[in-house]
Specification:
Layout: E1 2-5, E2 19-20, E3 26-28, H1 36-44, E4 49-52, H2 56-63, H3 80-93, H4 102-121, H5 136-143, H6 152-158, H7 167-177, H8 183-191, H9 194-204, H10 218-225, H11 227-241, H12 253-274, H13 279-288, H14 291-299, H15 301-313, H16 318-326, H17 330-341, H18 345-352, H19 363-378, H20 403-421, H21 427-430
Antiparallel strand pairs: 1-4, 2-3
Helix pairs in contact: 3-4, 4-19, 4-20, 5-15, 6-17, 7-8, 7-11, 8-10, 8-11, 9-11, 10-11, 11-13, 12-13, 12-19, 12-20, 13-18, 14-15, 14-17, 15-16, 17-18, 18-19
Length: 434
């Protein structure tokens, strides 16, 4: 057995065991002789490494470079000045975190590596830190008088007509929460919305899942993914469609959804390593974790702008500034919206706790918390939070949440963001990730 990273795989190498992706999906059988087409698909599927039959060449590459010559697959060396600039940028963004914590140190390392690589590939020598530098207008907005924001219950009630649950989504929600529902009922409920069905099939056929054969019907998707899991994904996709018209100025819609999808990919990937049964739910929780930001911006743009300015001027975390201005933050607003829709309690709780899970929080809530931190650190999109949030003190992280797991989740988020985002947004709204 020679575990070989994808960068060192070559045509002609033979798989020593069945190849599965991170979610346990079967990709290629043992004894497959890799071709150029296989290698292209492995990258699209998000495969990081493969078990290769030993050979003189693979053993030499696995052992490292010989005394003479350059090792095959050796990474291009990034100039030290670029790495230094990326690190200086990260230090500013991580100022609210405790880098004595092993998980935070690894996230910091990943952030520096990702930024340095992006700078090198884009021939960038300086970093735009404007997100961290307040303007005079923003400083004045911190002390400007605004109308008193409504209580959380009043905010949700005031948006009830606009944010009423579509009938199709209500039916899907009922199927997901009914332990006696059948796969046929799940497919029938989703099929009531042809647009949603098409989006769902695009997501199932994206690199996030990495299925070898195309899934072209809802019944096939239900069979492969599972009725509850597919219903949960449909709920997430349906909710994103309700928040297309984000008021301009306070938030870039493309960047917001990039951050949300990246968080979903990371959360789903980490969850699959721990318990494959919660992977879809974790993905949707990550996707919807910041939905409260959209509710608050749509209903109270003035106080939201004040909170953003306050966070920037005083170098505070955005949810902390929201607490001062509103008396609650976007996590609370998102959870309240889900409660009003009678969504599953697990989704409501993970959204509510994504900034501050405590020692009693479920492992799933902790995963969303870590996924949000990592997505922020990698700067894949943005929800208007300029600083990297800290790891909540005292939380119980799953034992399998290792540095290696974070590395894989970060790599897959970077690789899969554009393809997965295509299931949610029209091409003109997607933009390009870093």
């Amino acid at each position: 057995m020679v575990i070989t990273p994808i960068s060192r795989l070559k045509p002609g190498m033979t798989l020593a065991s069945d190849l599965l992706n991170e979610k346990g999906v079967f990709l290629l059988p043992k004894a497959t002789v890799l071709t150029e087409a296989h290698l292209g698909n492995l990258k699209r599927w998000g495969v990081i490494e493969a078990d290769i039959e030993p050979s003189a060449e693979s053993l030499q590459e696995h052992a490292g470079p010989a005394s003479a010559g350059k090792a095959p697959g050796r990474k291009t060396k990034i100039p030290p000045e670029i790495i230094a600039a990326a690190k200086a940028h990260a230090v500013k963004r991580f100022k609210k975190t405790d880098l004595r914590d092993e998980i935070m140190r690894e996230i910091f390392r990943l952030a520096v590596a990702h930024k340095a690589k992006s700078m090198y590939l884009n021939k960038q020598t300086a970093i735009d830190d404007s997100c961290l530098i307040p303007t005079d207008i923003e400083a004045k907005a911190c002390v400007a008088l605004t109308s008193a924001p409504p209580a959380l219950a009043d905010l949700i009630d005031s948006r009830s007509n606009i944010l009423s649950l579509p009938s199709v989504l209500a039916k899907i929600n009922a199927v997901v929460q009914n332990p006696l529902s059948t796969p046929e009922e799940a497919a029938e409920a989703i099929a009531l919305d042809p647009g949603l069905s098409a989006k769902l099939l695009r997501l199932v056929n994206s690199s996030y899942y990495g299925f070898v054969a195309k899934v072209d019907t809802l019944s096939r998707a239900v069979t492969i993914v599972g009725s509850k899991q597919l219903g949960t994904l449909a709920m997430g996709l349906s909710v994103t469609s309700m928040f297309r018209n984000i008021p301009p100025g306070l938030l870039d819609p493309r960047e917001f959804w990039k951050h949300s999808v990246a968080c979903g990919i990371i959360a789903g990937t980490l969850a699959a390593m721990i318990d494959k049964n919660i992977a879809e739910r974790a993905f949707v929780s990550g996707l919807l974790h910041d939905i409260g930001r959209l509710v608050m911006i749509a209903g109270q743009p003035g106080p939201c702008y004040k909170a953003q300015c306050l966070a920037k001027v005083q170098s505070r975390l955005l949810f902390d500034a929201e607490n001062e201005v509103f008396g609650y933050n976007h996590a609370h607003a998102g959870a309240a919206l889900m409660a009003s829709w009678r969504f599953p309690a697990t989704l409501e709780n993970t959204v509510n706790l994504h900034h501050n899970p405590d020692a009693t929080a479920a492992p799933e809530s902790c995963l969303i918390h870590v996924a949000d931190i990592l997505a922020n650190a990698l700067e894949i999109g943005s929800s208007a939070e300029c600083l990297v949030p800290p790891l909540a003190p005292g939380i119980r992280l799953p034992l399998r949440l290792s540095k290696e797991a974070l590395d894989k989740a970060a790599l897959l988020a970077v690789r899969q963001i554009e393809d997965t985002l295509a299931a949610f947004l029209p091409e003109k709204e997607r933009g390009h990730s870093n």
